[in-house]
Design brief:
Blueprint lengths: L1 H5 L1 H4 L4 H26 L7 H16 L1 H13 L11 H16 L1 H4 L3 E3 L5 E3 L4 H24 L3 H26 L6 H22 L9 H14 L6 E8 L2 H8 L1 H18 L6 E6 L2 E7 L3 H18 L8 E8 L3 H29 L1
Antiparallel strand pairs: 1-2, 3-5, 3-6, 4-5
Helix pairs in contact: 3-4, 3-5, 3-10, 5-8, 8-9, 9-10, 11-15, 12-13, 13-14
Length: 366
Amino acid sequence: MVILMANKNVSAGKNKVRRVFTLLVRLTAAELVLDSAIWLMRGAEFTGAYYVDNALCLAYYIIYCMIPFLWMYYTAVYFHVEYFLDGRLKIPVVLPYVVSAVCTAASFKTRWVFYVDESVYNYSGSMSWIMNAVSLIYLSAAAIVSFAMIKRFHTKAERLQCLSMLSFLVLPITALIIQYLFYGTSTLWISVVLSLLMVFVNVQDNQISADSLTGLNNRYRFDKYLAKLAAENSPSDRYALLMIDVDRFKAINDTYGHIKGDRALVCVSEILKKSCHNTDAFVARYGGDEFAIICKYENAAVMVERIESGVESFNAAKSEVFSLSLSIGITQFCGGGEEAAESFILRADQDMYSKKQAKKAVRQAV
């Protein structure tokens, strides 16, 4: 928890994902403190101890269901599907938490969720199960969102992101079950801290290796992947490198502005992702308006056809003010170390450049 609280990338809150994650970390830290304070208050004899313990329990159980709710919200924001928290769905989504909060606040008189006896010992109330039920509802909703995104995403890397988000749920759900079966155990918040740490490590890794604009692998990840491929694969393992350049990209920027230029790059990335759907192809933004795909050599021709078809469909839809055209260079790679990898890139780049020049010559002739 100290690692999570101290890291500046978590606490900076530069975007909604970070802000929600930061709030999750802070509330989990608060819950750990409250859990310890409640345990220390057991049997306390100072004046007002009864009321202090009641206040601690109230705060503890109010936050108890807020953390699963925030995890669901974090998952939705992370995958850009937070629209289900707007409009008509807002009330049914928030309602379980409101019910748990009302039951908790009413516990001073009803003893539904908790109560404190005269000896300043706290106990679970007759309806304390509702806290675990509400928590499971929100954690299950988060799992459904992650499962849904696995089907929507096209690349292996994106699907691994979904699986990493799902891994967060394993420890907290296990802890909830243990606490329900064995009264008095307190494993939930330790499991939440461990899960948040796993998510944090995954997010940090993603920030290092993903292109911030398109979400594709970046040049750093591309170089690592190619180096590994060169070192581990035998000459019998044939791979193809597709170097892809956006034709007349400068014209898009000059005519429509840099925001539309960025949009063009995002549109290209979406076409490439769809073209690599259900394959083991590695897709990256190489730099600027250049992209790269590494795939099995026997799949390269099909990959090019898919990309060209995707570009045609995009232009036919006329959903943007600009149209797209791509030049694709291809070369074969059979392993052979770092020097061979550099030559691999150079050959693909030369092939791409020659095709780009051929297109330019045709345009000028017309």
